[in-house]
Amino acid sequence: MRTVIFDLDGTLADTSGDLVAAANACFRDLGLGDVLDPLADAATAMRGGRAMLTLGFERTGGHGPDEIDRQYPRLLDYYGQALDIHTRLFPGAVEAVEGLRAGGYAVGVCTNKPEGLADRLLDSLGVRGLFASLIGADTLPTRKPDAAPYLAAVERAQGALDRSVLIGDTVTDRDTARAAGVPVILVTFGPHGDGVHDMAPDGTIGSYNDLGAEVQRLIG
């Protein structure tokens, strides 16, 4: 079965506000205040908790890798307490996924967000039932850009690898697709904007209205 696998953060939904809020809660605990900006640092938020902590400590100085390791579980805890305050699905995402399903495509999610948090978020947004598979950062021993999570997302959606495509927004998604030997479509409405063109994807979309045509062009 033809299969479309989606990244979550920055692709299906803008989660940056809640991610940055969780990181800033950690910084406030350390007496550093709100170090990150939810708009200016949105692209870093899409790279995950450790990336946000690293950036914050680079700005404030005096904290090394050990402190990142200490703060990371706290960041996840803060995020888990408030993961859907500011998060919104991108316009047209639901309609695009529903259109793919109606067209006979299997759809799933492959994210570097921990699986439990991803499951809760998709459920809170009212779309968990649209996806036949969900692979998170801790579902398998490896995470994106390793190919294994993507392969598992396709398999659990009962799809065909050689007729599948990954929809994402970062170089991690591009590298995951390359590792799996499948095409990748990157969105230009995520934090990286038109900069995704520099990542040499197989296709781009500026709106979910364009997704169906791009998917059909690449995998039929």
Describe, in plain words, how this protein is organized in 3D.
The protein is an alpha/beta fold and 220 residues long. Helix content is 44%, strand content 13%. The chain is built from nine helices and eight strands. A six-stranded parallel beta sheet has the order 5-4-1-6-7-8, sandwiched between helices. Strand 4, helix 6 and strand 5 (133-135) form a beta-alpha-beta unit. The model has no long low-confidence stretch (mean pLDDT 96).
What keywords describe this structure?
single chain, 220 residues, alpha/beta, Rossmann fold, 2 domains, 6-stranded parallel sheet, two-stranded antiparallel sheet, 9 helices, 44% helix, HAD-SF_hydro_IA, HAD_2
Describe the structure concisely.
This protein has 220 residues and is α/β, with parallel strands linked by helices. It has 9 helices and 8 strands.
